[in-house]
Amino acid sequence: MSRTSLALGNLRGIVILIVLGFHSVLAYLDFLPATAQKFDTPPYQWVASPIIDSQRWLGFDLFCAWHDVYLMSLMYFLSGLFVWGSLTRKGVRLFLSDRLLRLGLPLIPAVFVLMPIALYPAYLATANEPSISDYWQQLMALPFWPCGPQWFLWQLLALSILAAGIYRLIPQAGDRLARWAGRMSAQPGRFYVALAAASAVTYIPLALIYSPWSWFQLGPFAFQWCRPLHYLVYFFAGIAVGTYGLDRGLLATDGALARRWPIWVAVATVTFLAWIAPTALVMGTEQPHFALLLGSALGYVLACAGGGMVVLALALRFSTRRRRILDSLSENAYGMYLVHYVFVVWLQYAMLGVAVPAIIKAAIVFAGTLLLSWGTTAALRSIPLASRRIGDDGGALAKAS
């Protein structure tokens, strides 16, 4: 296995840790309202934070803000790296069949079985006379079906279908994208500018129209209005880099991106500050000025690209050796993504009455979620049918190929 492949495999394990950490601290964010609204009361705040604890820590707000800026975009980028090669190797029909079995099939129990179990504590926390039958009635009365973190996989499946359609209609598109990535590979700064510019075109107009926090929900399908086209840019940027070659260009472990990681730490820090400053003013103002909204949207695309680049640079520079723990996390990452939300919400609910600081609560929730989702996935993977769906085929969370 090449050093780049090792770095990407380790990064896959690190990403699932970040995802679990992100969801584990959502109950303890400082900006949350003092008390939770009832489960059946619009605007259904539990969609973002199913449990609201009285213990808070501002550091968790900064942690979530930082990872919310870049993490999902990076996951779409990583997912795109292997798409064109998979299409070339398998052909459109087999590629789509594998994607539907790999992404679509596990989504059915994840959304329609696990999510009702995961969200029951959100109902219990505010119900006067809780019962399973009343919870089910309130769940069925919602104008949407909550899908939780699985919205990422719905969109990834849609992007995979789009890529397959392009491959069928314009098979030379991959070569064109690879040539573009090749021209950018020697100078990561050029890649950063191009990526940020493309995402600005797709993100900023929608962010100004709908606001960055506005969601569309229809049945089990959900997405932020301003981000689908932005994610498309990152997905196809990943296709371009992957088609050019993982062991050369941008992702080479001895390339310019890896060598100049301190520069990208600085870029990520400066651009994050450029985003969070106007965004904090926007959130604190009832009718923010257009210039603030524009500054927040522009800061987002700059910080998103900067965050993704620094994480890639650090992985390529410092994570090129095999580690047993990260190997196991990488192999189980997809299954952990599918099941972890149940453990997060129930553990947060169980900690509501415990009189300890937010940092301790979050640490307990994270540790419990990590062990339970890891163990559950490992147990499921011992079943042959489940193993083929959620086992490691090169990393479904990053590739799903």
Detailed description of the structure:
The chain is an all-alpha fold and 401 residues long. The protein has one domain. The chain has a two-stranded antiparallel ribbon with strand order 1-2. A hairpin with a 2-residue loop joins strand 1 and strand 2. Helix 1 crosses helix 14 and helix 8 packs antiparallel against helix 9. The longest helix has 33 residues. It is globular, with a radius of gyration of 21 Å.
Question: Could you list some keywords that capture this structure?
Answer:
single chain; 401 residues; mainly alpha; two-stranded antiparallel sheet; disordered C terminus
Chain-wise SSE layout:
Layout: H1 3-24, H2 58-80, H3 83-90, H4 92-124, H5 132-141, H6 151-169, H7 173-185, H8 188-210, E1 215-218, E2 221-224, H9 228-244, H10 256-259, H11 261-283, H12 290-318, H13 324-350, H14 358-381, H15 384-390
Antiparallel strand pairs: 1-2
Overall 3D shape: globular
Report the β-strand fraction as a percent range.
Answer: under 5%
* Whole-number total of structural domains: 1
Major β-sheet strand ordering: 1-2
Radius of gyration: 21 Å
Sketch the major β-sheet.
Answer: 2 strands, antiparallel
* Percent helix: over 70%
The H-and-E topology, N to C, reads as HHHHHHHHEEHHHHHHH
- Structural class by secondary-structure content: mainly alpha
By DSSP (H or I, 4+ residues per run), the number of helices equals 15
What is the tally of beta strands? 2
